[in-house]
Fold this sequence. Notes:
The complex is a heterodimer of chains A (311) and B (283).
Chain A: H1 2-13, E1 48-54, H2 59-72, E2 76-83, H3 85-93, E3 99-102, H4 106-109, H5 115-120, E4 121-135, E5 143-144, H6 146-153, E6 171-174, H7 180-190, E7 201-202, H8 206-215, E8 219-224, E9 233-234, E10 236-237, H9 244-249, E11 255-263, H10 268-277, H11 280-289, E12 293-294, E13 300-302, E14 308-310
Parallel strand pairs in A: 1-2, 1-3, 5-10, 6-7, 6-8
Antiparallel strand pairs in A: 3-11, 4-8, 4-9, 4-11, 4-12, 13-14
Chain B: H1 2-29, H2 31-35, H3 40-45, E1 49-50, E2 57-58, H4 61-92, H5 96-110, H6 113-131, H7 139-163, H8 167-175, H9 180-209, H10 212-218, H11 235-242, H12 251-282
Antiparallel strand pairs in B: 1-2
Amino acid sequence: MALALTSVVALSACGNTNNTAATNNGGNNAAATNTPTENSSSGSDLSGSILASGSTALQPLVEMAAESFMDANSGVDIQVQGGGSGTGLTQVAEKQVDIGNSDVFAEEKLKDADAEKAAALVDHQVAVVAMAAVSHPDAGVDNLTKQQLVDIFTGKVTNWSEVGGADQAIQIINRPSSSGTRATFEAFALGTKTEDLQGSVQEDSSGTVKKMIGETPGAIGYLALSYLDDTVKTLNYDGIEPSVDNVISGDYPVWAYQHMYTNGEPNEVVKAFLDYMMTDEVQNGDVVELGYIPASAMQVQRDVDGNVTAK
Amino acid sequence: MVGRIYMSLCVLLLIVIIVSMVYFVASKGIANFISGEVKLTDFLFGTKWSPEGETPSFGALPFISGSFLVTLLAALIASPLSICAALFMTEIVPGWGKKLLQPVIELLSGIPSVVYGFVGLSVIVPFLRDTFPGQGIGVAAGALVLSVMILPTITSVAADALASLPQNLKESSFALGATRWQTISRVILPTTLPAIMTGVVLGMARAFGEALAVQMVIGNAPFVPRSLFESASTLTSVITLSMGNTTMGSTLNNALWSMALVLMLMTFVFVLLVRMLERRNKI
């Protein structure tokens, strides 16, 4: 209720400004629902406001792109909020926001009774985030196979010496079971869901996870590639190095799309912004700069069921 | 007249806000039990928390017990320190002692939670890891961080209570030949105990509701801990970790609201306790 109110206020506050720089925009979409009126005198000028919420992992990218988009289109006002993937998907499904940012496919979060809501959402994949298993530098291991990772994260293996490392107890630094990062790691690195183990540690922020893996003897966890540095040891997966090139070529499987969902086809202003996200300027600029992998560069694609095909 | 209407409107608005908030949390919190998706007894006494498992289970006992455990431990650590600090400021060295201690303790309450959490992660956790078995993360670290956070609450309430004690009580005690220690332990403390307890309960209420600092150092494994140095969870840490990742209306989301309802009911209990102590205080 409060959120609905704020979004209404935010939307009505910016109204019919018409001092806009020209940007190309194509279709006139009838799907416009809660967006402000378009300047009728000059069809190519953009004005309006966009409210986006959701994934905190995607937030910095959308914010950065929004800044430059607003610089080029002074009539457009874009607000980006965090809140988590679940929040973003809920709000876009209920039309409280124009764009819902998510780390996971909507179908994975909006299940059962909510499956209808997921069907109404249109997916825009703007970037890719890859994750790597990382350990404390003294664990003495540089490579883990899929089976070894499964054994560690299900509690079957509890000492690094069992997987060829130092004689040191393994301490798992995990993500909460509802986290999108954990869902991605479990789906594509382990191939199975795991239960939380007694004594395991769960943290939600990548910064904290990295700090704890670097400081706790015998720690293992997983991080997005953009967070990797010398304080932690990056582990190869089945002999494959988790590098940007290996992700793009499809050799390294542990990655996920960053989605920007709209409810139905986007209206003119939102579509222009989403198109802008896919331009070379953003894909090879902001996306790379912030440590994501450009969705446009990927040589493979993956559907909601996890089937990978060449693009 | 205008002022009176304006004030009445403000009060009315306040009441509406409070009632609607209570209603909102309560209605979301009981949704799972009404729809039958989770049984109340399973929620309150179940020890298995696995919302994403093959057969999801929503036992919140690990979190409820974790919340109580860190709160009680924090109160046990902080209360003696706070009461001594308050006595020092009011009875032992009221002059420079108060001038020095009061601002320092007030400063503690102004530090943001995230800073406490980070200090806990950078100082307390490594210290516990090197000194005790386990990884340092766990109930003990959470209780230590919380105890520092509730020091100012208990100290300031206790100091106020001690300062408001009638002067003649102390003077008669000294006149009878009692030493300072005898006066403090036999006269001052027993008389002000209900007021000091109010401070302790207020501190516990703060500790029970604190989320961020605890979440950073406690580990958040959904289990009843077997030792003080093992990863555990509190109600608040689970809510903050999971809320954003769940969609509104899902069973997991509603289960988190149920935990919020438990937290709210506990706050009512704390408020009730403070009220009862205040009543005792007046007699």
